[in-house]
Design brief:
Helix content: 40-55%
Largest sheet: 4 strands, mixed
Structural class: alpha+beta
Distance between the termini: 57 Å
Order of helices and strands: HHEHHEHEEHH
Number of strands: 4
Strand content: 5-15%
């Protein structure tokens, strides 16, 4: 009887462990400096996902309809560094992580969720977006084709603001 009891207990523990979601999600980092270093090293753009992962309905839709699909994951692996900047209600975060996310939200003018920014490996913000219906293929086309044009002066100024703010508040990468 004891053997059956322990088998059931360990079975429930294993089942619970398997069903718990990774945080941050697999393939994403929640460390800005790590993302910046990887982007510079690989030349990949950074996709900054400002999200309320445990409460924001549109964030959950974007995750399910785009970010968790095989098509997006394949595209991201080749082209993006995925940065998860979360503002949850029921998930514990370190004070350092909260500060980092607040600095980034202030820097990028985030006022609602989800807010998605695409930034290149030189710290140039390329575009701001959010939830888009239509699935991963449409979202990928949107990320690639709907980037606004900037003058060279604007590019340099924006690079400087982003790079300097991150260095000042978060450190070097």
């Amino acid at each position: 009887m004891k053997a059956l009891y322990f088998t059931l207990i360990f079975g429930f523990i294993a089942l619970f462990s398997l069903s718990a979601e990774a945080y941050p999600p697999e393939g994403w980092t929640d460390d800005v400096l790590e993302a910046m270093a990887e982007s510079e090293k690989t030349g990949k753009d950074i996709l900054l996902n400002f999200t309320g992962s445990d409460w924001c309905v549109w964030c959950k839709k974007l995750k399910a309809e785009v970010f968790e699909t095989a098509a997006f994951r394949e595209y991201a692996e080749k082209n993006l560094v995925l940065l998860f900047l979360d503002f949850p209600n029921g998930i514990d975060q370190s004070e350092e992580l909260k500060k980092q996310n607040e600095v980034m939200a202030g820097l990028f003018g985030v006022q609602g969720f989800p807010t998605i920014w695409l930034m290149d490996s030189t710290q140039l913000p390329l575009m701001k977006t959010g939830y888009q219906d239509g699935g991963p293929e449409k979202y990928i086309r949107h990320l690639e084709n709907d980037r606004p044009e900037f003058s060279e002066d604007a590019k340099e100024k924006n690079r400087e603001i982003v790079g300097d703010t991150i260095r000042e508040h978060l450190g070097e990468w």
